[in-house]
Specification:
Strand 3 and strand 4 form a beta hairpin. Strands 1, 2, 3, 4, 5, 6, 7 and 8 form an eight-stranded antiparallel β-sheet that branches. This protein has a single domain, classed as Umud Fragment, subunit A (Ribbon), CATH 2.10.109. It is built from two helices and eight strands. Helix content is 37%, strand content 28%. By secondary structure, the protein is of the alpha+beta class.
Length: 162
């Protein structure tokens, strides 16, 4: 999920300051590069985290050259990590500890709340990180199916009205 450059530097500075002061922040996601796991306007809670607290499969917010990226970790070593959007084919630039803003621990999508600190969520994230290249090719068909499902639901509810 990428935000416009003119606003990103200021947002990144605010997020970094707030997470250092409070240890946790809540922000709204902008974009669909993590679809279907994260969608545009979902709310996420980030906790302050160092590289030693990040695992493959975790979703993190990084600041890469004033580009805020909320993507999944798919490679990691002691001093850097590489992230990738679930719905895109290419990976992001290598991120250092200084680029890391925080680790996503909660996702709020509509009325649903997804906690990412459970064992199930951790294993799911790891699995997704391993098959996300396939997921990138499924992005467009999944979006189309979602749109068809919403249209059908809307049509059916319209037909039921007296």
């Amino acid at each position: 999920m990428i935000m416009e450059n003119s606003i990103q530097a200021a947002k990144a500075a605010i997020y970094k300051h707030d997470i250092l002061q409070k240890g946790s922040i809540q922000i709204t996601v902008n974009g669909n590069s993590m679809f279907p796991f994260l969608k545009n306007n979902d709310r996420i809670i980030l906790n302050k985290a160092g590289l030693d607290q990040i695992s493959i499969g975790d979703i993190v917010l990084t600041d890469k050259g004033n580009r805020l990226l909320c993507h999944r970790v798919f490679k990691k070593n002691t001093n850097s990590l590489r992230t990738k959007a679930d719905a895109l084919i290419y990976s992001d630039e290598l991120a250092q500890e200084k680029d890391l803003i925080g680790k996503v621990v909660v996702i709020r999508s509509g009325k649903k709340t997804i906690r990412l600190n459970t064992n199930f969520a951790k294993y799911s994230g790891f699995l997704i990180s391993r098959v996300m290249v396939i997921g990138a090719f499924l992005y467009i068909p999944l979006r189309l199916l979602r749109k068809i499902g919403r249209t059908l639901a809307s049509f059916l509810s319209y037909q039921r009205q007296p």
